[in-house]
Amino acid sequence: MKTLLGAACSLALLLTVAACGDDSGGGSGGDKKQNNGEGDATNPGGDPGTNPGTPGTPGTDPGTNPGTGPGTTQPVTCEKLWKDYVAANPVGLSTTHEATSTIVTGGVSNVSKSTSTFTVLQSKDELVETKSEYQMTSPITSEPSVNSDPYTKVEFLAGCKPGEGDRQLPENMKVEILEQRDESITVPAGTFSAHYVKSKVTTTGGGQDGVSNMQMWTLKDRPYVQAKTISTSSMSIGGTVMDTTTDTVLVKLVLP
Fold first, then answer.
1. Any bridge partners for residue 227, and if so which?
2. What average pLDDT does this structure show over 220-229?
3. Which of 2, 7, 196, 251 has fewest C-beta within 10 Å?
């Protein structure tokens, strides 16, 4: 399960970063890349794709954003990516998401709901630290899980590989960007200008074969914050087919 959550976080971050364009020289698209989700994001709360505090290894754009301005895209460095990440996560920024997951296995359906909150505790050149709070709310209410998650510049630079695209995901996972656009979205936390990305993920080998589809809306002015995600997947694990649908929405946003 931990491996699956890590992959989900990596995917979420990859798609979030794909929404980030480089405005150097007047252009608004290009080869910039961010995580969640989601990079190998560290999300101790167990709710993949909603952590604004740990980017894992951002730094690649699959190249599907041609840009809307006449400017020339400048090379993106790991130093710049880290600087952008720190600026996007000021102390006091807090997000709360609610997730509803439906899993169907062998004709039996199970629905679960959870809440996750991420708050930025420290944000400076050498590290960004977040607090994660996770709680299952249905079918049972679990005890809240609270963790502190420091993420250092040294860790980031050690894993940052600009321009390597989905090679930052597990080797058995392939991501295809199907569609992306800017649009307005309304969620419980409010109405926001967002960037929408639709993707297809194919997983093969390792006893886990399947296809997943993900739709993600990230805030235009805070691309590390996800307003909404919808993911559907059908996967065969050891010969058993598992169909999963997860709908995650932003219910509270606190700005410093």
1. none
2. 91
3. 2
- Cα 158 to Cα 41, 56, 57, 89: the distances in Å are 14, 10, 9, 20
52's tokens? 């604004």
pTM of the full structure: 0.69
Q: Is the N-terminal amide bond of 139 cis, ω within 30° of 0? A: yes
107-135 per-residue burial string, b: 16 or more CB within 10 A, e: under 16: eeeeeeebbbbbbbeebeeeebbbbbbbb
Longest dimension (CA), the chain: 55
Decide which of 35 and 242 is more confident: 242
| Residue partners of 63: CB distance under 8 A and separation at least 6 | 31, 165
| Long-range CB pairs of 179-185, under 8 A, 24+ apart, other chains included | 180/18, 180/19, 180/64, 180/65, 182/220, 183/217, 185/217, 185/227, 185/228
- For 187-224, the pLDDT digits (tens) are 999 999 999 999 998 877 766 677 889 999 999 988 88
pLDDT score for 192: 97
Q: DSSP assignment of 147-216, as one string?
A: EEEEEEHHHHHHH--TT-GGGGS-TTEEEEEEEEEEEEEEETTEEEEEEEEEEEEEE-STTEEEEEEEEE
In angstroms, the CA 32 to CA 133 distance is 30
